[in-house]
Specification:
heterodimer; A: 5-stranded mixed beta sheet; 3-stranded antiparallel beta sheet; B: 145 residues; 4-stranded parallel beta sheet; 4 strands
């Protein structure tokens, strides 16, 4: 992994020196050891702090729409849009593609540094593992080798853990670990792609109706409506969200259960054709709500019903702005007569 | 809305979103043809089934509707040519997503009714009402104030 970070730093330095970019979004060492922190680099000197390890789980595509959003410009005196390099795993890359298609980021202003991915470590699993081993969760240093993660506690103890069991559930179900169509791809190991069956959604859908409702209600009842899931989601970029408009006031602003359930149902629906199942929403949730069985449904349906997977292809139209004459309509109610 | 029907028992309340060009006219035809169907529906006229935002549907349920019916022109007959075809994709996703989280699929129904199908409209309302009656009052998404 050290080699990957070096390659990113070198590439970033070259790009800045050649004057090809104004900004680079990547990762630097976080204050805690559990998660690398996203960083905005504006010069070759700043690129020195860039890093890459198994805690770079954040989806960096989330920062892009706001970079390219600007006031209406006076004709002939338009302010140039920034040229931005992004360090992107395959999931970040797919989110980028969705944003580019929806005109939230111009492709020509992006320099995408693709990184094949072995799956990122789930900080909650790591914390649980540490607690089991040492009785506390503090970690001062995290180092990794091919198959293991080694954590150092404040009192100097070293805990060695196998890497694979710590990998996020989303990554285990990842069908696209290698980015395609990046401007530069850093050589890095990747995990074998999952085959896409029997993920969290399918397991959930096999449960009985009432059980599913109960589980949904239970999970959502913990929601405090902080909107962290929405903020963390790269394709939740609306400047005005239905959850906050008051004309019309679609839903109340408090954590009343039906309001909260509707917020989640509609937010998930809005990700149709956009959700790349990066799990940014799940990672961001301070209440540890497992949105995966619900949020993944929309990606599954779009794939199964319309044959659309948000991937690396910039040409295919998003599924909800188009249609086919023979789209399935077996859900249409046929009355008894007439 | 009054929960009691004329017969005294609980009667389901159905919110029906009907497109201006086909289904609303179909409902009108059912009316002027003196066809009998349950008085359970509250009609909201929309310009096209493509106008339906899934928020309309869940808001109706939150306001206490026991069922929601959405109806537009038959595929190929849309006044705006493709409004109902784009809508069809949304409908399929909404129907599946609501069922997935555990809302009974019969609560939210979608259909096509043309301006000449008064009998089909009456029958449709009968079916949707009957389905809601079997399920009983909708409480899952209904907001209790």
């Amino acid at each position: 992994m050290a080699g990957v970070a070096e390659d990113i730093r070198r590439l970033a330095g070259e790009l800045f020196q050649a004057g090809k970019i104004d900004l680079l979004i990547g990762f630097e060492q976080g204050t805690g050891s559990y998660r690398a922190r996203p960083v905005f680099v504006e010069s070759a000197a700043g690129a020195e702090g860039l890093t890459w390890d198994s805690t770079c789980s954040s989806n960096l595509a989330v920062y892009l729409p706001s970079l390219f959003r600007r006031e209406p410009q006076k004709k002939g005196a338009e302010r140039a849009l920034p040229r931005v390099a992004v360090v992107a795993k395959a999931c970040d890359m797919r989110s980028l593609v969705a944003l580019i298609k929806e005109k939230q980021a111009p492709r020509e202003n992006l320099f995408i540094i693709g990184i094949p991915c072995r799956g990122m470590v789930d900080e909650r699993k790591l914390a649980a593992e540490m607690e089991k081993a040492t009785g506390r969760v503090d970690v001062t240093d995290l180092s990794e080798s091919e198959d293991s993660i080694c954590a150092t506690t404040p009192d100097g103890r070293k805990v060695e853990m196998a890497r694979e069991p710590l990998v996020q559930d989303a990554c285990r179900e990842c069908r696209f670990p290698v980015p395609q169509g990046a401007d530069a791809t850093v050589a890095a190991p990747s995990r074998p792609p999952a085959n896409g069956d029997d993920g969290a959604v399918l397991q959930f859908s096999r449960r009985a109706d009432e059980e599913r409702w109960k589980s949904f209600e239970e999970e959502i009842s913990r929601c405090i409506r902080c909107y962290a899931c929405r903020q963390a989601c790269p394709t939740c970029y609306c400047t005005e969200c239905f959850a906050e408009t008051n004309r019309p006031a679609w839903i109340g602003a408090t954590a009343e259960i039906t309001d909260t359930m509707i917020f989640h149902i509609i937010r998930i629906f809005h990700q149709a054709g956009r959700c790349v199942e990066c799990d940014a929403c799940v990672r961001a949730c301070p209440m540890g709500i497992d949105l995966r069985p619900f949020a993944g449904k929309i990606a599954l349906d779009v794939r199964e019903m319309f044959g659309f997977t948000p991937g690396f292809d910039l040409e295919s139209p998003p599924p909800l702005i188009t249609f086919k004459d023979d789209d399935r309509q077996d859900f249409i109610t046929e009355p008894h007569r007439g | 809305m009054n929960e009691q029907g004329m017969s005294g028992g609980w009667q389901p309340r159905i919110v029906a979103f009907l497109c201006n060009w086909c289904s609303y006219a179909g409902a009108d035809l059912a009316g002027v043809s003196r066809m009998q169907y349950p008085p359970s529906i509250r009609v909201i006229r929309v310009p096209c089934s493509g106008r339906i935002n899934p928020l309309f549907i869940v808001s109706a349920l939150q306001s206490g509707a026991d069922g929601v019916l959405v109806s537009g022109c038959h595929p190929g007959d849309c006044h705006y040519l493709s409004g109902n075809l784009v809508a069809r994709r949304k409908f399929a996703l909404v129907k599946n997503l609501l069922a997935h989280v555990g809302i009974e699929p019969e609560r939210v129904q979608f259909s096509w009714v043309s301006a000449s199908e008064g009998a089909r409209f009456a029958s449709l309302v009968e079916k949707v009402t009957e389905d809601a009656r079997k399920l009983g009052p909708q409480r899952k998404l209904a907001k209790v104030l």
